[in-house]
Amino acid sequence: MSFKPYAADAPAAVDRALKRPHLIERVLHSSYASSSLLFIGSSDGTLRSYEMDERASIARWQATHKRLFHGSCAFLDRWGVFITISDSRVKVFDLPLQVGDGGMTVDDTKGAVLFAVHEEVKTLCVLLQSSMLKVFDWKENEVLQVRVQHELMDNLRPVQQLVTLSERHVFVQGKKDWGVLDLNSGRMLDVRDVKQQVDAAFEGGKRVCDAVPLPSRHLARRRQHVMDLLLCGKRQAMIVWISECVKTKNGASEEKDEYGAFRDKVLATDDTGHGETLDMSSSRLCLKVERVIEYDMAPRWVFYHHPFLLLDQMEHVAVYNFRTLRIVQTIPVKALYGLCAARNVVSTTMKPSAEIKDDCSATLITVSPPFDIRTHLMVPVAQQIASSMGNLHLENAVALCKLCPDESPLSDTEQRKLYAEYSFELFWSARRREAVDLFIETDVDIMEVLLLFPQNLLPRKASALRKANSITNKERVIDDGDLLDSLFALIWFLRRKRKACLHSEKDISSAGTHSCRSLTAPEESALELIDTMLVKCFAVVAEQAEYAKQAKHALLELVKCQNWCDIGEAEVFLRAHQQFKALLAFYSARRLHRKVLELLEGLERSAASEAVLFEQSETDRDEEQLQSSGDSQSSHDYMVLIAQYLRTLGKKHAELVFEFSRRILSENPALGLSIFTQREVPDVTTDIDPAMVLQHLKSSPIAFSGSDLTSPKQIVDDVAKPVLPLTSSRLLAIEYLTQLIYEKSRQLTPRLHDEVVYLLLDSIQAETPQRQRLTSRVEAQGGVTGLLRRKLLQFLEFPGAAYHPERMLSRTPIEMVSEHAALLSKLGRHREVLQFYVIKLRDAALAEAYCDRCYESKAADSSIYSTLLQIHLRPRCHMDSLASDTASPVICSQHPPLSRFSSSGLHIEAVNAVISLLNKYAERIDVPTALELLPIDVAVSPLASFFRRVLERQVERYRNGQVKKQLSKMENFKVREQLSAKRKGSVTVWSSQCCGSCGKQLGVGTFVRLPNGNLLHYSCQSIQ
């Protein structure tokens, strides 16, 4: 307090003193008239006015106004009126006040007991005796118009004080409780957190004086005219403000992270919403404590005289700097009756300084016993700033510059230098949050801030570290104890600088649209420095257990998105701190695919070697050694990561895919195969050609031996669904092609479909021992050969297979009857397939199932059943044909001549099979052909079911025909009746009627009547 903002007081001569000054309640002032008027309000309702001279040295009594004073009354010089409550009604008087002026009574204010006014937003809140709160708006025609009204809740009654905080919010103080009301919605804001803090600090929430509205110290809120609120207790006062409630997912960690270093939303101009414009219409508004003032003596009341806060502490008036909340002076005035501001500094209002021209110093008037009126001139703000800088009180100087920008004598350069010096002073005094705000505001060079930190965190570029004119003290470096807190502040600073750089990338046109521009070289250099330092900071903070999760998440988000990190420096630092997951994401974002794969492969080999050492060691490793690996995983996990990454690379990086997939194919063939079968390339046209993949799989060695995966148990389990053991490159290629074909994920050429058959045939030949012969039935084949044959048969019968069956017939051994049958079926040669099943395999059930499958899939008509009957009942003809097929794969498909045989020349099984077919499929078999083929001496009784179903079908067909015939007759009669009715209808054509198409009169010529009743000329009907 070496410098006092208020000069020595000067008493004012009063020509007529008050007889009962102890009745004084308030001191008011109005500058609306040509002269300065001082008003003394007494508890008896009297308002006395005194005219002050220019020097405020003489107070001349002017007038006495009876029944005009009220505790809520106010002089509104901008409105040009004085508002008070008289006779339980709100009255408005024009300024200057005139003796005998009755004023204008505001309608709908009968029973008014309190009111509060906000002059800037032109809002008046009036409380009636019925606890009804009415809101009025001051219109341009100088009329108060009702906006809305609300009935207050019971817990706020009786109301003791109203304070209008904004156009939409009013503070209501009840006898036992208080709250803030949204005037538009009638909803109370959330004040639970503030009440808890007030109750804890004010010993139960009891305040010692009325709440005081204060202008916000933040420019954006001052422009909105949103007021803060001062609540005073016995030992401290709290400034609360309206803010948006933000619920955090991890409250504990958010409290520790006071800078918001890990917060998703980052502002480029201010910290956690302090500088943001308040969304008044938001439904998530609440009250929060912004600042706290400490004092030794509780004030009787508080007055705001920009840029100072004055507290009446009975023995004196304490003067506090409004920004720093530090006491700067005590004015020796005892038992004060009241005080008011006769003049304010220009920066008090938000109007431009050019509109307000007042060369007089800011003046404060106090009234104290017995009736002593004194004036206190404020020392010019420019002089206060100069004195504070001279005494090295940088905090006070900066506060005055911010609160009174119009009065500041400093140029922009001088002011920036002052802020920069003070910001570094704040940083070293552990007030790093305020320091970072000033760093951003004054646009301090990033390197100036980085030089505060240890050498191992700084960039490696020596030229960037050398600054000739640095305002920082290079000899002071942050020690290890404050490093973590300083890193949080640095992260917050860097993120805001990054936001500002990226935001400047978008220019706003005159139309209000955003147009992107390319970054300049200095901007890219700054972003490179920022992102590199952010990576380092996050990596260091991640080593702290309580912040590890948040720091790693933030690091991943930074390296995954577009960034300008120095690749070499970030790579070295992340490797040194074992942040391999972030390093992988960084490589991936920069499309450094080879580096990603090399890193993963190195981690996989290291994990594999560690696993081998661990298995060979007899003692377990300590828990600390296990945790020291950070994000390390097993060898298999890293292989999975390599496979997942390779799936995303297309044909442009085919060489990388083939190179790094060989080890996986050798160690884990199933996982390696998934690289090529479970592709994650968005566009199929950019994926690797399956022919290239096939050649790669054929040339890839498999480390597993065939004996490891061909146990009899596994082969038995695979009978229902043949799955090949991936023990060789050939089997790997087969599995790859078949999966693509079955899943239809890629369109393969017929040559690759043929390749599947060739590979399977070669595998069967290679796996079949020389002494082992191939069985005619696939189900009877055992071992690996049987598994391969089942795989082959499954592929041959697959409808989507596009191989060339005529080529496969010559390659398939004649012993593989089932495979031959599948190939012939693909060619549509069903007679030969049935010959194989009935004559070669002697399996009537298999032949019957084949007929059902062909008929139901519409691959053949019902004649296939007659063909099966012929093969059963005329076996000799087909045996001769089948014998000729052994010599040549081409079999004559001509039907043998029909002739009747006796059952004695046939096998009983064949006759029984035929009878079963006739009884089961009577509706699908041609009856004359079947009767012609049956032996002459066959018994009729087994065919009773067949004849019954045939006769029933004939009768059903006959009856259905009769029903259809009768229905057709009825329909014919109905249509004829309708036609007759239409023909009997008459149409009256008047001479005035016109054609619906051309609009001309119909006359007596030929016309056409449409179904909707419209009439047309006969020649116009085609046009219609």
UniProtKB/TrEMBL annotation:
Record-level GO cellular component terms: cytoplasm; membrane
Domain Vacuolar sorting protein 39/Transforming growth factor beta receptor-associated zinc finger residue range list: 986-1022
Top-level taxon of origin: Eukaryota
Annotated Pfam families: Vps39_1 (PF10366), zf-Vps39_C (PF10367)
Domain Vacuolar sorting protein 39/Transforming growth factor beta receptor-associated: 547-664
GO biological process: autophagy; endosomal vesicle fusion
InterPro entries tied to this protein: Vam6/VPS39/TRAP1 (IPR032914), VPS39/TGF_beta_rcpt-assoc_1 (IPR019452), VPS39/TGFA1_Znf (IPR019453), WD40_repeat_dom_sf (IPR036322)
Protein name per Swiss-Prot or TrEMBL: Vam6/Vps39-like protein
